[in-house]
Fold these 3 entries.
Entry 1:
Amino acid sequence: MAARAAGGSGDAPGEGAPLLDDLMPWSVRALRTGRPWVIAPDAAWLRARWERLVRAPDAERERLFQVTRSRTPHTPVAALPGQSTGTGRFARESGPCPEPVRIAHGPFDEQWLLPDHRLIDAARPELWRVADGHQFFVVEHGHVPQDAGPALVVTALLPDGHSPAGRPGRIRPLYRRPGGLEANLAPGLLALLRARHGEAVTERSVLAWLLAAARPSAAGCVVPLPAETAHWSAGVELGQELLRLHLRGARGGERPRLPGGRRPYVRAAIPPAPDALEYDPDDETLVLGTGRISPVPAGAWEFRVGGVRMLELWFGRRATAAGAPEPSGLEAVRARVWPQEWTSELLELITVLALLAELRPRQESLAGGRQITAEELRAAGVLPVPATARRPASVLGHQEEGPDGQFALL
């Protein structure tokens, strides 16, 4: 595949800068569940939905299941890597609910998923195969013109790659093999960066630079690479701050906190079923029905990805808007009371978005300076990337259960 570079279009931040697609060549499409009821903000909802489904008579089970071309209750499917769920036809399933797993549901939202391959149209097993305590996932959102939000989100959870604007994006694991082995970087890129900026350059510092410097463009996500070490070091330092916020305490980091006096607090209790979310910029107050949270900086309220406000999206997935139709089928199996855990999650999300908004000017200042161009990467043999680097690595000796209990050696 020929190497590509962003040209001088209006939304491209660097003449001749390489694309993320070449720097992190292995990418996977977003998960496609096929049935929205397998994801929920509360694991208890999923357990209740499972119980209703497996106890239903055959005809009702098929209706509740929500049949698609990829999945019916009779579709033979292998187990998801790392999961011990059944592989027999779901029409015969009567056992207990598999333990829901925490996933990143789009940018800056964490929800729960039923990890049963029989219920998911396209679960992307290659992602599950490399998801472990060493992995980081880079999620690239589809390009939206004039969007000022971040080009990338990084998570330690397995992401579904959901795009708020509905544009297709890509999921890029940092490592191609379990155990933090074989970086998903263009062959030769690390050596080139070490030759320029010193032996301290690692996969983790490249990840930090990507998070700080990547910019969306119509041609794809663009990543200017600095030729000057001082510029590189400043970007990596900023990227490490951003990474700490994105990870929210995962991988041994500290959970994000605003300084005292700026931390958001619940000023009036959130009602059992808030049906609207509003923002009062004068008082810096988030209003949830009769509940009130403040101070909420304007930067947190206005924080958008793909043109969509993150706080509104997060709330809309948990509350039924006034006048909106009630969900049907298994999606109707849900709690009617706002749990305390959601309030804690909301306070943390406000904190994360506020701190990210404060760092945005420093990200903008990374633009400019002398760069390592795609042409230089070609001259150094880093580009074009070999086709094998764009495919998943084989995981030899990794045994997985196929349909109806048959085993496959990968």
Entry 2:
Amino acid sequence: MPLKSNFITDLAQEKRLIPLLDSYYQKHLKLYDFERVHSLEQQLQGIDLVLTHKKTGETFFVDEKAQLDYLNNDLPTFAFELFYTKNETLKQGWLFDAKKKTQMYALVTNIQKPCDNFTECNITFVNRQKLLSFLTEKGLDEDFLQKRVIEHLGFHGKMELPGLDLRKEGHIHFSSKNKAEQPVNLVFQLAFLKEIGVAKEFI
């Protein structure tokens, strides 16, 4: 039986999550004003929020990524999309997509939904350029990872990467058997991203 895509369901869930996220930003963002983006064109460019520093006027484009597949679970990791499959063709994921204008990722984890409504979550901000620079320094740039993925198409599960501790830092994960889009993700321990100065917990 073909695997069913969760794309439409995820979009509906994301819209229902927005009020909770906005309430957190309003309460906890002390140095920045935020503006939620409604333009589909900008959203496709990886911009869900625009943060503007209240004193300097400097702006940051933020892409929100929520762990909607793991409601009511506090996972210590987060998956960054490298590639996925569409019409049996390998497509580039959002992490290395040069068309994306994203400067920061807002990683939404530990999403609690005991009944019909979302009640709480955690938000971790990740500086995209710092993350990409870290990967380049480790020799895990786009070219290397693409070759690794192509060499192992059809593989399912975790795969160790050179320079990363599989258990404490990160790994590559192939979902070839349980998801319709067959995503290949770079999975990092959130604590490790904070430790190397790439991420900062917001809430």
Entry 3:
Amino acid sequence: MRAVELADEGGVSALSLVRLAEVLNVTPNALYRYLDSREELDILLREYALADPPSAARIDDWQVATRDWAHRLRARYLAHPWLADLTLTVPITPNALGWLEALLSRLEGSSLGAAETIRAATLLDGYIRAQFISQRDVRAWGESSSSEGGDLTGQVSPLLDARGYGRVAALFRGGVYREPTKEVHDRDFEFGLDRILLGLSSAEGLRDHSPVRSRGARPRG
């Protein structure tokens, strides 16, 4: 798909229907015979980038299965970074719906109810996308700062104590506060995913032990 190649080369910001028509050596009007709008092009781009969804077969350990799904989706973002820049839409295409089906099948082994399951699916999908964007932006900033002025953290470090930022200064001195490597990004992703799965696994216990309101009582807030 030529549109995907253009997005891979310059991101979705560099892609337009006019540009795509130029590359395909057709007029924009000719392209509009197949695409009604840029939004429709984005839907097709997302569908291609997601590729075939993983199997929806249920696996006994729902946390292991859900973790596998999360890593598979993250791999699609890594393969096509511009996927994170497309406008979010409700899944309506075969591959997008297949990814949702695969996740729902994995969450069936949990104690979550129907409403909680779709909230969990939204949470997991949003976490993967947001984490990818964050890590991508930090990586781009690190590459830019290195090319322009070297190690900015090293330049800032001596000023922290004078500012009263002792805790941050300790992180700097301990070597913790630095431009993340791929290994650090992977560990950060696992850390967040672990906490989400831990929270989901405790949902039933929290629900079972929640206080029962008396009839007619109104929730605060």
